[in-house]
Specification:
Two copies of one chain form a homodimer. With about 375 residues, chain A is of the alpha/beta class. Helices cover about 40% and strands about 20% of the residues of chain A. The first copy, chain A, has two domains: about 270 residues, Queuine tRNA-ribosyltransferase-like (TIM Barrel, Alpha-Beta Barrel), CATH 3.20.20.105; about 60 residues, no CATH class. In chain A, strand 9 and strand 10 form a beta hairpin.
């Protein structure tokens, strides 16, 4: 299912291919966020045109709106939202644990939908069931993370619960999926353990015993600091079997992505390019693998005839001035956030393509 | 400048060509509204793809934001906003007279910019000057309208002021424009007079004496009722010289547009397709020249796999279900208003194309 096609000679970076029910994707891979089944403001035609082959959709949000029953009527999330690439869905856990009204039990979590005020339950099995109903290409197990700041005791509990839930997820998944079908969806485990190496090691060991198609690192980028984060990544990646895809959840900024690729990470997702874009913060290249973030709302762009990034070949930089983009944001025209999100996602895509070329040339 | 190419044998409808600095446009013609120099949420690439050749931009809004000085730096409004078709600009009057803090003097109006709290003046000459700075293809004179409900006395005053301002606009325009240049911008006069035939007649007579490239009917669709409105249109159109383009300002719904085309109107603009689209109200064809407006937020569309309009060939109807559009509006994804606006503008364009075909076939 995962084939490593090229290994860097100067770092642990690698280029691979992941075979999924919806098609093959190349790694390193960045997933744009389609929380409610769409990348806000953009059409999937545009996402595809940039070159993206896989998106991340949020199980928690979609289960509540439009609801799993409606997605089932369309046979798949892809059919419902009109995306013809691959989909990775999270388990719903991360969103649920950030709610105010959430109770964690041994076998499930109970939470209040903040919009409709209804009580919901989510178990490890239920999360897999929903993701299978969505016909996701990659499913994530329900893990438990207590949030930052944390005490070692809490993380210990989180690792233990995460292992139990991972076990149950795998059992349920095996019951539902024909493992002889080589185009089956993949199930990824999530390593917890905070900044504590012994807990991270335990979590990974537990998951390896259960056996997953890929291994994700969760609970990072939450407040522990970048150097602590990379210590954990460095420590873990060496222990995840080389032939398995490695997914660093929710990270991040492009310099962090470059560094993590060098450490051997294959898959990334992050809200940064789209969320920043929605607020008028736009990525501009400075030198190779260097960039700055420009706030287009700044008055100094009011008369600026230049494109956002004169080195960028995207639709936005070929057709629009900074002054007009500034004007669109000032007049609250949704075209503004659309163009900024498009450019940022294009920027991310190209950045990773450039890393791939550099890996092949032996420069990364 | 205006050539009538086809006249209906069963109505006063006609098909014409209007030669403008930015290119030729065919009438009957509907102008999408680009208040701040952009059709909200859409890119001009999309507006062009639908088939639109001309848009309407609002002088009042653009003069305040980004400001005429900035547009001048780009040499034209077209350059600033990246539109390569034609532009008609209004005079700014209609918006100003709907503000709370506005004082009307003999030679100018004074008003307060509600966002920045600054005092501004606009004279007939200033309005023309701004529109010339924008390099508009069609400029409208500053007219005066007191708003609905009105008394005959107020309309009498409005007609008299409108005539005076029209005179001054024409004088100023003639000073600035080389009339020997056959690719010069056009200047349209605006007929006022409320629902009073003698006042409408006087207003038109005054304007005809001054002489304009086209004649617009203003101050309709404000509360006087549809039958009164068509009485005025019917009365006026017969008196506007046949060789001049006739523009019915701010109207409207498609059945009104069809009726007005039959009466001999050539140009229309209206916020309906885009404003309704932004609120999830979408045009759906029922029978020939008949349609209904569907509210996509209605719960009954939650599971509806059908396209918005199964008879429509637009990008939205070819690619998206009602259920997904409903979901986009429910989750406040700006893609929703973008798709709905796109479909509605496509619908308007096709509707008018169909009227043109029907005129040529002798059916309208």
């Amino acid at each position: 299912m995962f084939k490593i096609e090229y290994k860097s000679k100067i770092s642990r970076a690698r280029i691979g291919r992941l075979k999924l029910p919806s098609g093959e994707v190349e790694t390193p891979l960045f997933l744009p966020i389609a929380t409610f089944g769409n990348v806000r403001g953009l059409s999937f035609e545009e996402i595809k045109k940039i070159g993206y082959q896989m998106i991340l959709a949020n199980t928690y949000h979609l289960h509540l709106r439009p609801g799993t029953e409606i997605i089932k009527k369309f046979k798949s999330l892809k059919n419902f939202c009109g995306w013809n690439g691959s989909i990775l869905t999270d388990s719903g856990g991360f969103q649920i644990f950030s709610l105010k009204n959430v109770k964690v039990f041994e076998n499930f979590v109970e939470f209040l939908d903040e919009i409709e005020g209804k009580k919901h339950k989510l178990s490890p099995e239920k999360s897999i069931e929903i993701q299978l109903d969505f016909k996701s290409d990659i499913l994530m197990v329900l893990d438990y993370f207590c949030g930052w700041p944390y005490k070692k005791k809490e993380i210990e509990k989180a690792v233990s619960l995460t292992t139990k839930w991972a076990q149950r997820s795998k059992i349920f998944f095996k019951e539902k999926i024909n493992f002889k079908n080589h185009l089956r969806p993949l199930l990824f485990g999530i390593i917890q353990g905070g900044v504590y190496k012994n807990l991270r090691e335990k979590s990974l060991k537990d998951l390896l015993e259960i056996g997953f198609d890929g291994y994700a690192i969760g609970g990072l980028g939450v407040g522990e600091g970048v150097s602590k984060m990379f210590e954990v990544i460095d420590f873990l990646v060496k222990k995840i079997p080389e032939e398995k895809p490695r997914y660093l959840m929710g990270i991040g900024l492009l310099d962090q992505i470059l560094k993590a690729i060098k450490k051997g990470i294959d898959i990334f997702d992050c809200v940064v390019p789209t969320r920043e874009g929605r607020h008028g913060r736009i990525f501009v290249r400075s030198q190779k693998f260097k960039y700055k973030i420009v706030n287009i709302l700044n008055t100094k762009y009011k008369k600026d005839k230049k494109p956002i990034d004169s080195k960028c070949n995207c639709f936005v930089c070929q057709n629009f001035s900074r002054a007009f983009l500034h004007h669109l944001f000032k007049t609250k025209d949704p075209l503004g956030l659309r163009l900024a999100s498009f450019h940022n996602l294009y920027f991310y895509f190209e950045f990773i393509e450039e890393i791939k070329r550099a890996i092949k040339k032996g420069k990364v």
